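S.,

Sequence below, as promised.
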Amino acid sequence: MTLEESLKALKSAFSGKSAEAETFAKELSEAKAKNETLSAEFEALKEKFEATSAIVVERDSAIAKIEELTKALASAETVKAEAVSQIETVAKKSASIVAAAGVVPVEISSADNVAPAKSNEEIWTEYCGIKNPTEKVAFYNKNRSAIISHLGIK
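The prediction came back faster than expected:
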């Protein structure tokens, strides 16, 4: 083989290897780009996982608090039931004491049934809003002192 033939053979082998090297370089750059994309996606998923973990911790904490409040509510219900039974017992005892004294016991309405007192201004506003004269007179007679007090009459 002559030097010229050897040179041509090397050139053709080199150009074939050059094309092969360019293909490998292109594949390597594509792999690097894909690696960077996957790394970015991995970091985003990692952040989402951390956020989800924090939410799970908050949820577990809330569940524990709900369980604690449920137990406290059950305890309060038990105390309420005991208090109601004691109130009934006290009412029965007082009724028997009153009956033993020869007086007819009278039931006193509980504080739950008492309407909150209205202010003089609220009574005056309600009085002014009544259109029916009969109802207005009845309301005035019932709330006369509050109406007079609101108007400043002595």
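Residues 115-154 form one domain.

Coffee later?
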